């Protein structure tokens, strides 16, 4: 069941009150029997997001974007402060680390869809890192940019799930972000070394590198099939 079947799932008034039964039908599998996982969390997240949009932002995320005056950093902070389900934070060796994957990809998608103009015009899009989940690490392993320890590799090859917030899950995501930032810096150095390319250092950023690697993985899916990727069931990917 979807919009074509009369369910206004994009309307915050609707999804702020949607029932679990309704949502299970909306997200039913093609066989009409398979149920979407984490249904309780999804209902709670939709309720909270819808209520915030209705109470603070005139029922539209456009107002969130407009209120940030072209700053990706401000929009990121607004999202994680106002919308609980985007608060992707973990404790790691006495430190609190944050990834904010879904919040950052939301901003990155707005920027990309509007091609850096109108609602997608952010004067600090460089503030956004790569979107740390499970597929980009697979490509980084392929290129030798990161490497798994033998015990971790054995776990992944055994198809064991990594708990969200576990040290291994945090390390995979954190190392992936660091690797992309290093690639970003190296590409900018190359741009500076070849002025005939007529490129600016600001023509490259972590969002674009993430998009490139994501597309690469899809285009070379068979080649990368033998490389295990971590599986984590959570609301933050």
TrEMBL record:
<comment type="similarity">
    <text>Belongs to the QNG1 protein family.</text>
</comment>
<dbReference type="InterPro" id="IPR019438">
    <property type="entry name" value="Q_salvage"/>
</dbReference>
<dbReference type="GO" id="GO:0016787">
    <property type="term" value="F:hydrolase activity"/>
</dbReference>
<protein>
    <recommendedName>
        <fullName>Queuosine 5'-phosphate N-glycosylase/hydrolase</fullName>
        <ecNumber>3.2.2.-</ecNumber>
    </recommendedName>
</protein>
<dbReference type="GO" id="GO:0006400">
    <property type="term" value="P:tRNA modification"/>
</dbReference>
<comment type="function">
    <text>Catalyzes the hydrolysis of queuosine 5'-phosphate, releasing the nucleobase queuine (q). Is required for salvage of queuine from exogenous queuosine (Q) that is imported and then converted to queuosine 5'-phosphate intracellularly.</text>
</comment>
<dbReference type="Pfam" id="PF10343">
    <property type="entry name" value="Q_salvage"/>
</dbReference>
<keyword id="KW-0378">Hydrolase</keyword>
């Amino acid at each position: 069941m979807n919009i074509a079947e009369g369910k206004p799932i994009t309307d915050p008034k609707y999804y702020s009150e949607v029932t679990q039964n309704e949502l299970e039908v909306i997200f039913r599998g093609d066989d009409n029997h398979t149920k979407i996982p984490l249904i309780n969390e999804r209902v709670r997240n939709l309720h909270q997001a819808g209520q915030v949009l209705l109470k603070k932002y005139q029922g539209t995320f456009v107002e969130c974007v407009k209120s940030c005056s072209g700053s990706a950093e401000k929009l990121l902070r607004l999202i994680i402060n106002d919308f609980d389900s985007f608060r992707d934070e973990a404790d790691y060796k006495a430190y609190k680390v944050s990834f904010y994957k879904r919040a950052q990809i939301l901003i990155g998608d707005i920027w990309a869809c509007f091609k850096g103009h109108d609602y997608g015009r952010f004067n600090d899009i460089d503030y956004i890192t790569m979107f740390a989940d499970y597929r980009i690490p697979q490509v980084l392993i392929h290129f030798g940019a990161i490497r798994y320890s033998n015990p971790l590799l054995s776990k992944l090859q055994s198809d064991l799930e990594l708990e969200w917030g576990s040290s291994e899950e945090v390390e995979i995501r954190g190392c992936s972000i660091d690797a992309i930032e290093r690639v970003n810096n190296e590409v900018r150095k190359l741009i500076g070394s070849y002025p005939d390319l007529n490129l600016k250092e600001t023509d490259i950023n972590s969002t674009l590198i993430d998009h490139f690697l994501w597309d690469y993985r899809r285009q070379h899916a068979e080649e990368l099939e033998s490389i295990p990727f971590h599986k984590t069931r959570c609301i933050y990917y």
